[in-house]
Design a protein that fits this description.
With 124 residues, the chain is an all-alpha fold. Helix content is 71%, strand content 0%. The protein has 6 helices and no strands. Helix 3 packs across helix 5. The radius of gyration is 14 Å and the shape is globular.
């Protein structure tokens, strides 16, 4: 199977779980021991608004390769009509693009690049 032919929403579906796993482990390793506090802190990272903020900052800093940009653009321009009620469609599409890129990198077995992206987001 050619990874570049996989539907970007399928890539985002996978990327979402990987992204959230990184965030949860990061927050637990920070020493947050209360589930409610973990949930509140996680929202800064896992919300569509938070994800869109990070990917736009990374785009502004030319963080991505041409190959990665092609995945991001494909996902961002996907014509899915649905989006959560708590954010606008543009924000949602950028968040989806970040998740799709992570899903793509996972299927490409490029864990090192996922680590670099997550370290950027987490400020490490």
């Amino acid at each position: 199977m050619n990874i570049k032919e996989i539907n970007v929403l399928v890539l985002a579906y996978l990327g979402d779980t990987i992204y959230e796993d990184y965030i949860r482990k990061y927050l637990i390793n920070k020493g947050i021991g209360n589930v409610n506090d973990l949930q509140k802190e996680a929202l800064n990272y896992v919300s569509a608004k938070g994800q869109a903020k990070y990917i736009n900052e990374m785009l502004d800093n030319n963080f991505f390769s041409e190959e990665e940009l092609s995945i991001i653009k494909r996902a961002r321009n996907n014509s899915s009509k649905s989006h959560p009620k708590n954010c606008d469609v543009v924000t949602y599409r950028y968040a989806t693009a970040l998740e799709a890129l992570i899903g793509y990198l996972e299927l490409s077995q490029n864990k090192e690049r996922i680590d670099e992206i997550m370290n950027y987001i987490l400020g490490e």
